[in-house]
Structures are given as structure tokens and as C-alpha cells.
């Protein structure tokens, strides 16, 4: 009998434009991951970055408070290593170095700022780890990761990373750029739709005309749509995993949400 591979207890922290995520997991030498804890905070670090090019002071303080909470959890688990990465908001902000310095000095975390292409690659690794055999055998598939500041689209072929693109699209950026009323006006929705279509045009090079392929979504926007489709009242990752949401259902969800105020959407 082959002995189990040795594992290390590792903490991974994702500093996104809208949400921060903490994962504590056992990682084996052969790459298998067993979750111990998943925690999320929503400091909206990227608030206003699209307009000003800078991290604003209130957002920085919210981010640092979220990281202090994460640090307490990390210390409680006595992890062997902490890996932290920042994405769109930090890589675009003029004052990113000041923020990263405070994270190091006040929290004790070294944060790596990764490119959009590297963000796509790491997204793929995470998605791949959760694939069933059916998904791994997909001849043609695309992974969609909608973030707060950017969106990554990854092409996979025969269960392997083929190529990817990072687009200047994100829920925080688009909301700040296009939506000025609550609920949004039809004209604002059309403006947002035009911005999305223009950006998606850059992703056409990922296609080669071989067919429509399978679209696999990850991150909060996609899982929220799936939860609404399943009519879940409590978030359940196991139920959401590999849920297939028909295009017609996505369009119906979009139409329904667009008519609601932000307060009404939060109550769903």
C-alpha cells in the first residue's frame, strides 16, 4: 500500500478589487488540496480606482481591517506558509506601493501583484482542481472569471490550458463607469452592454471556429446567478458546483435584477 503523500498546511489570500478571500488547506506533494477553511470579506479595495487611478484612503482602511481578521485566523491555524496575491485594483493603482508597504508593516504579509495573464493561469489551476472527469475530457471549453476590476477568459482544450485573455471589465469598474441611478436606467444598461461587447470583441481570438464549446464560470457573479437559478436561500458550494444554468435563465435573472434597487438585490 502506497503511503499518503506528505502535506503542508498553507494559507492562500486573494486580494481582489471587490472581495478578499482566504483559503486554508492541506496541500500534498502531488498537488491535491483539502480545504480546512474558506473565508471571505468585501472591503471593495478598488472603489474609485477606475476614475482616479488611486486606492482611496477609506478603501485602504477597510482592506487592512479585513487582512487583520485574516491574520488572526491564519495564526490560529498555525499554517506553514502564507501566499498572498493582489490583482486588478492594486496592479493599476498609482499608490499601490504605499498600500503594499502598509500591509507588510502592519499585517506582516508579503503580497505579490500578479498580471492579468498570471491571474488567468491561477484561475485555471483552481478550476482544474475542481473538474470532474466529464469536464476534464471536454474537447473545447472556456473558463470565465468575472472579477471586480477585470475579467479573465481562458480557453482549455482536452483538459489543458491553451491560452487566455484578461479584459478591462469588472463589476466594480462597470458599475462606477456606467450606472448612476438605482435601479439603473435603460440607457445606462445599454451603455454597459456596449462596453461589455466592445471588450469581448478582443476575446474573439480565443475562438477557432470549431463550435460553441462549453462555458465554465467561476467567482461570485457566476455562483450568485447559479444560486438564484436554484432558488437557494443559503449559500451551498456543493450544490452550486457544476450546476448548469441555461442561457435563457441567465437572461431572465439579468432582467429581474436590473429592475431592482441595490437594497432589494441584497435581500435576495
Overall description:
With 268 residues, the protein is an alpha/beta fold. It folds into 2 domains: 7-114, ATPase, nucleotide binding domain (Nucleotidyltransferase, domain 5, 2-Layer Sandwich); 119-266, Exopolyphosphatase. Domain 2 (Nucleotidyltransferase, domain 5), CATH 3.30.420. 43% of the residues lie in helices and 23% in strands. The strands form 2 sheets. Strands 3-2-1-4-5 form a 5-stranded mixed β-sheet. A hairpin with a 4-residue loop joins strand 6 (141-146) and strand 7. Helix 2 packs parallel to helix 4 (96-107). 26% of the residues are buried. The model has no long low-confidence stretch (mean pLDDT 87).
**Secondary-structure-derived class:** alpha/beta
User: Ends: how far apart?
Assistant: 50 Å
User: Sheet with the most strands?
Assistant: 5 strands, mixed
Integer tally of domains: 2
Mean pLDDT, to the nearest integer, reads 87
Number of helices: 12
What order do the SSEs take from the amino end to the carboxyl end, as H and E?
Answer: EEEHHEHHEHHEEEHHEHHHH
Q: In which range does the helix fraction lie?
A: 40-55%
Rg estimate, integer Å: 19 Å
Task: Give the total of beta strands.
Answer: 9
CATH superfamily of the largest domain: Exopolyphosphatase. Domain 2
Global morphology: globular
Kindly estimate the percentage of residues that lie in beta strands according to DSSP. Answer: 15-25%
Which runs of at least 5 residues are low in confidence (pLDDT < 50)?
none
* CATH level-3 fold name of the largest domain: Nucleotidyltransferase, domain 5
